[in-house]
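Below is a filled-in request sheet from our internal design queue. Each sheet records the structural input a requester submitted and the sequence that came back. We keep these sheets so that new team members can see what a complete request looks like end to end.

REQUESTER: design group, bay 2
PRIORITY: normal
MODE: inverse folding
CHAIN LENGTH: 299
BACKBONE (tokenized):
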């Protein structure tokens, strides 16, 4: 019979691609990790890893076991969540990580409504660019990440749950001649001067890709690492930016910024929840993810 603990160690070696790295993450000796894998291989009658100087890569049998091991872990988590009443947990903690837009403009409301249902769960939140937020999940610093950015396709061992499509709008201030218009053809964006996020952010990369796909030629007057600075700069001058509606809702209400729909272009990003499939997923983040699913259901 397959041993649950040995399967967990197998998942860590598969994720790290190295017995040494897995041992460091598990706080075990490399020889102990190797013995657990050898025990699994003896039960299955087949090798799970091909070892080389560059690390450990899965064999064909290893790939088969990887799929089942992930499903076993997932079912185990679901069983514990079903049997655990989060309402009665004391001292429970939820560690979240998020990209700036989601973390600043959406998560505060979601956390408040979540804690209204689960007052015994304390919540912490850190914001950063997408790669670092995903890295926090992989390292165990966060239970769950909320992002709109794209994930590096080379990363493995992640469970990504799409939650909501988020439309992006062209945003202008009062000094821009498009103030008051309801929409603008995508071709008219050519020649505009943009204010954007910094080059290292997935938001900036997404924007550049989107404009390039539609043949838009543009210039950038400034780049900032937070949305608030972008909004204030656009409000004060003739430049434009592209942001989700939730980020400018208050400024639109005050008549400081104005959002226009871009005709002829699909400018959408996907809000996603990301967790490490190789790690135990405790009841508090499971409850929060379920809360988000219910909160974000369209009527």
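RETURNED SEQUENCE:
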């Amino acid at each position: 019979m397959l041993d649950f603990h040995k399967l967990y160690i197998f998942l860590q070696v598969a994720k790290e691609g190295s017995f040494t790295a897995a041992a460091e993450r598990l706080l075990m000796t490399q020889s102990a990790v190797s013995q657990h894998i050898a025990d699994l291989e003896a039960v299955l009658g087949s090798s799970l890893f091909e070892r080389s100087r560059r690390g450990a890569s899965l064999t064909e049998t290893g790939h088969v076991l990887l799929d089942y091991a992930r499903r076993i872990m997932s079912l185990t988590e679901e069983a514990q969540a079903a049997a655990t009443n989060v309402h009665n947990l004391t001292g429970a903690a939820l560690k979240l990580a998020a990209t700036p837009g989601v973390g600043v403009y959406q998560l505060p409301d979601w956390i408040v409504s979540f804690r209204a249902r689960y007052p015994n769960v304390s919540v912490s939140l850190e914001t950063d660019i997408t790669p670092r937020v995903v890295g926090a999940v992989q390292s165990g610093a966060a239970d769950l990440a909320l992002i709109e950015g794209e994930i590096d396709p080379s990363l493995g061992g992640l469970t990504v749950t799409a939650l909501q499509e988020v439309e992006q709008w062209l945003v202008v201030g009062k000094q821009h001649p498009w103030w008051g218009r309801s929409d603008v053809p995508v071709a008219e964006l050519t020649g505009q001067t943009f204010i954007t996020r910094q080059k290292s952010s997935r938001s900036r990369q997404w924007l550049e890709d989107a404009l390039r796909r539609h043949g838009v030629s543009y210039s950038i007057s400034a780049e900032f690492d937070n949305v608030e600075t972008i909004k204030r700069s656009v409000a004060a001058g003739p430049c434009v930016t592209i942001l989700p509606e939730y980020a400018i809702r208050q400024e639109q209400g005050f008549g400081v910024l104005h959002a226009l729909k871009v005709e002829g272009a699909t400018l959408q990003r996907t809000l996603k929840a990301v967790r490490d499939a190789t790690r135990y997923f405790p009841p508090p983040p499971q409850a929060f993810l379920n809360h988000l699913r219910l909160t974000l259901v369209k009527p």
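SHEET NOTES:
- The mean pLDDT is 89.
- The chain has three domains: 4-82, 87-164+270-295, 165-268.
FILED BY: M.R.
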